Predict the 3D structure of the following.
Amino acid sequence: MYPPENVDESPLLRVGIQTSLNTKPLYWRLKEIAPDMELKEGTSRDLSNLLTKGELDVALVPLLTILRNPDLSVIPKISVTSRGLARNSILFSKVAPADIKTVLVDRSSVDSSALLRALFNIRWSTQPVEVLSSKPLMPDYPFMSMNYDAFLVIGDSAMQVRTEFPYKIDLGEQWQQWTNLPFVFSVWGMKAGLEGPALEELFLQAKEEGIGVISEIAKKEHGRLGLNEHACLDILYSTIYDLGEEELKGIERFHFFMEELRICEPYMELKFYGGDQFQIHPIGKKP
């Protein structure tokens, strides 16, 4: 049960959450399970900054944040992963991928922008100019009047863009075709020094209960998104919320490409949270 015994009588766990549809099963029931928890909404980039600064205890952050900050640990058995179509990470383009010279990247993105760079530089052997947007790209952004060849849109906005583009490139699908592996977009990251033997059980319980009410989530969210309920169900049911052997292989391959692009160090130790102890999963080549 939460809170664990023999700790402060009124603990307050500060938890950062992303609000896109496919993340919701992971925290839909969190407040019911732990009412004294403080939830803070934010973009993936904002949550990463807050967690690395220690201003959040736990946050749903991009995998790249963990790979670049080895002091953080990961709650085991939980992720937001795609195998094939991700739907929440789309490159909308006016021209074919090989002809893209300029791309406007949603400034909220972390993993998606890094994955896009790997696709451009390594898979497609191109190096377009990448420009960070001044604010998150929303569905009503005037894409066609802007002087960019392509636009990386993430989260719910990627599902809501109605502008007709000749090319709509799903990064999750591209990754799967390239590697035949799942792509891990987000994990629960925990700040260094945080201990409590019940914490991983809390988030695992929330995951299982959230998955159990996916139909409820779709029913409540489809109006906000402007999607029909069936489309929301399809997105939720096609998202992988586990973190097993195949997901770890995907993480290792992503790290390999990030190291090739000099975004990550050649070696890191992925720490899986376990209360007062950790399980270590080495990634990359140890110096």
